[in-house]
Amino acid sequence: MTENKNQLHIEHNTVQETLVIPLYARKVCSDRYPQFFRDEEAERLISMLDYDFAEKGAKMQSFAGNFGALEVAQRQYDLSCEVEAYLKEHPKAAVVNLGCGLDTTFSRVDNGQCRGYNLDLPGVIEVREQLLPSSEREKNIACDLNDFAWFDAVDPDGALAKSPQEGGDGAVFFAAGVFYYFRTEEVQALIAAMAERFPGAVIVFDACNERGLKMMLKTWVKEAGITEVGAFFSVRDAKAELAGWSDRFASVTSRGYMKGYRDLGKAIPWLYRRMCSLCDGFISMQIVRIAFAE
Is residue 115 pLDDT above 80, yes or no? Predict the structure, then answer.
């Protein structure tokens, strides 16, 4: 990409660079499958970055790279479906993106009444503020998700609203590609604490089984120097494995990640269709939904 003083420079081998991969994946799918994944925000954000996309672009144009991009875009669609379903019953809810990166789900689901909270590490939020700055109804918050102090920044009841008409209506939390980086006990502690603090709320997130997690050894796990893969979060049967985490869970359900919300059918190559089935079955790629008791 040609350097432009109005563009935000992203260095290679930095935390900020990790934001580029899912963003570019969304663009790839938007270009390749516009009838399913039209993402003008991804196009706009990429145009604002001073970053050489040549290497990432070449990898994503491969067969495997294209399928990886398809996974990213399908995940965003799935999670958006869950958020929209909650907003139908709770139109003024807080929509909380855990580990937001440069995700733009809030703009997709915004009904004009809900409020958005985008949470991530300080270095990520610094970049996000330059590209997707906070607004009256959507705030970017720098934090460590494992430091529960961030709970105080989320206002599910509208206590901080300027008027009664702007009052709250619950909260829906979602995390895309986040909990794979957490140890199981960290995920349990976080979600159990959330269930206590945010009664009536819902959290949705993607997960896979241990077999799928081990497959990641060839990518981020290896690069991070992680050897104890079994200690990191994975799940095969969400209801059986997670329901006992807290007596404040009203329900635990899951649906297939690649085919559970819509089947792309003949719009994608036949081998991709087979891989979608393999992902949802063999490695249990799924979207988990946990509803908290009132």
Answer: yes
